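[INFO] parsing input record for ABC transporter ATP-binding protein
[DEBUG] input buffer:
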Amino acid sequence: MRVAEADVGRTAAAPTIAAGPQDSAPVIVSKNLTVGYELHRERQRLTALRDISLTVNRGEFVVLVGPSGCGKTTFINAISGLVKPWEGSIEVNGRPVTGPGPDRAMVFQDYALMPWRTVESNIRMPFEMQKLGLSQKEMDERVRRYIDLVDLTGFENSFPYELSGGMKQRVGIARALVSEPDILLADEPFAAIDAMTREAMQSELERFVTNTRQTVVFITHSIDEAVTLGDRVVVISYRPGRIKEIVNVNLPRPRFDYDVKMLPEYGELRDHIWRLVKDEALQTARGAK
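[DEBUG] output buffer:
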């Protein structure tokens, strides 16, 4: 079943307590977006996403879940400007997306750090790639501020091989935030981290977002992670990806100050999303045969 944007909020039972801060100003607007790829060897066109309509408001944390290959990464690549629509449109801050820009930043699953650069040098990279009109003093102050924000003070001169997985991911987050983009795009950033570090990083990300008021679009395969972090969870169907349902997550923040998983509403939301994703995973398995 596909749920239109007008139906958001009626897709699942939700608790009455308020979620994280956001306002009604739209930042990302996708209208009937269809995106695909040319498979030159097979001389075919693969449709990754079809007819995606979604509005993300300022300060909102939106999580995308769905089976592998359903187009989640393609969607954030369209937001970032790395791929172009076949049909429909996507706008950021009221303007059509024509390519990458300093108002959007990406956090990757595999850290994507330069091994020959120190923590400070990796975080400083956006200043070398973008013209932000900042003085050297302003750039230095920003780097210092975001090193502090991700709790890496004292590791400024360390190289990636000297850091743990969680520390490397914090460098990637600081590098994404240092240009102070309007939108943070995260493609399974904690998938390669052990369970204990992953939970700690989820807590830190929530703290980062609260402090910076970032608008976030986040991909995960973990339903627990989706419910714990998101204001809304967008369930994407089997390829070509469509919005199957949008689920509001009206749980209080900060969610890591107490055991939010003990709330009955948490279990209801998790079970509801699991049933949606399970159906799509079965479709994926059948399609692979």
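[INFO] Confidence is low (pLDDT under 50) at residues 1-20.
[INFO] shutting down worker
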